[in-house]
Amino acid sequence: MDLRGLHEVNTGLGDGLAAAVELIATPFVFGVLGHLLDRWLGTQLVFMFTFALVVLAYEVWKLVSRYLSAMDAHEASAKWARPNRSVSEGVSDG
């Protein structure tokens, strides 16, 4: 049994579950807080929707940016990655 592979699968599952819970629970909590503020101020669910949508947009942005940075790091460390050489080292792109 490959314990390293099993550890990577379990870590991936845990990270995915944490991201899913964070994506759902955080906007819900802020929506509830916005609803309480709406009740206290007597407004018509303005703060509930505003808080929930702003936090949802932030959570989606954070999830996408983490994914893209993880993919960039994976591609940089992959076998097929090109060496990172600059023009000052005598290598030109054209």
Distance between the termini: 48 Å
Q: Please bin the fraction of helical residues.
A: over 70%
Largest sheet: none
State the total count of DSSP E strands: 0
Low-confidence stretches: none
The rounded Rg comes to: 22 Å
* SSE-based structural type: mainly alpha
Percent of sequence in beta strands: under 5%
Overall mean pLDDT stands at: 85
Give the topology string: H per helix, E per strand.
HH
The general outline is elongated
Q: Given the structure, what is the number of helices?
A: 2
Structural topology:
Blueprint: H1 3-41, H2 46-76
Helix pairs in contact: 1-2
Describe, in plain words, how this protein is organized in 3D.
It is a single chain. By secondary structure, the chain is mostly helical. The chain has a domain at about 15-75. Helices cover about 75% and strands about 0% of the residues. α1 packs antiparallel against α2. It is elongated, with a radius of gyration of 22 Å.
Short note summarizing the structure:
The protein is an all-alpha fold and 94 residues long.
